[in-house]
Amino acid sequence: MSWFVATVYDHWMRATEAACLVRWRAELLRHLKGDVLEVGAGTGATLPHYPKTITRLVLTEPDGYMRRRLERRRGTSAFPQAEILDASLDGLPMPDASFDTVVSMLVLCSVPDLHAALEEVFRVLKPGGLFLFLEHVAADQHPARLAWQHRLEPVWKRVAGNCHLTRQTEQAIRAAGFQVEWIKRESMRKVMPFIRPCIRGAARKPCSLGVANPAPSKRLTK
Fold first, then answer.
1. Angle subtended by helix axes 2-16 and 64-75, to nearest 10
2. Is the pLDDT at 26 greater than 90, yes or no?
3. Which residues, including other chains, have CB under 8 Å from residue 62's CB and lie 6 or more apart?
4. Model confidence at 193: pLDDT above 90
5. What pTM does this model have?
6. Backbone angles phi, psi at 99, to 5 degrees
7. What is the pLDDT of residues 134-163, one digit of tens each?
């Protein structure tokens, strides 16, 4: 179904981008500088929001249909020199401590192994590096909606590119060794109710080079 998702994605998300995502993306990225990696860049919706203070921008996207659209958007963006790589989050082809910031926008819901993906983000960040995220998550604060997420998730994963509705992403970020600096919960607008619960925020890899990435006692992947 990846060709179908890539074909309809921008049209399907247009109203939501206008209602909230454009503002959220801009707020998260406005102070970025240095070397930046965006994982799962999709069709490139985040490209217009990167500031000129960035010295290097690398975009990964493992889906070929999405990547073709990303390449077209790169050509008309302020970063035509951005590198685009065919790489998934369970095995990034970068050395340890390569980037000042890693950006994830509506990506962690669809990775096969959330724990492994966050380990890779942690690995490629420099000590003290920043992880910026915007992700839809389980509706923990709304039991009725959470129950519907659980019912719909098996079918939704099949039609929406392995998108999980019930991921405990904040807990997984903390368990991966990040220090969460701030986090905000808010509902995405103009989408179906079971997708609305979102978190966005910033987490930092500890500055001490002696701090290892702790393996949690049990994985928080759903």
1. 50
2. yes
3. 40, 86, 87, 88
4. yes
5. 0.91
6. -130, 150
7. 999 999 989 999 999 999 999 999 988 899
Measured CA distances, 29 to 103, 132, 221 (Å): 9, 8, 27
* CB-CB neighbours of 216 under 10 Å: 14
* Integer Cα distance of 221 and 209 in angstroms: 27
97 within 8 A of 126, measured Cβ to Cβ: yes
The string of DSSP letters for 69-116 reads: HHHHHHHTSS-TT-EEE---TTS-SS-TT-EEEEEEES-TTT-S-HHH
Residues 6+ apart with CB under 8 A from 4: none
Assess whether pLDDT exceeds 70 at residue 216: no
If you count DSSP H runs as helices and E runs as strands, how many of each does the chain have, helices first? 6, 7
Structural domains of the chain in order of their starting residue, each with its CATH number = 2-204 (3.40.50.150)
Cα–Cα distance between 79 and 37 in angstroms, integer? 13
pLDDT tens for 62-84 read 999 999 999 999 999 999 999 99
C-alpha pair distances (Å), 64 with each of 10, 37, 40, 43, 71: 16, 19, 11, 10, 10
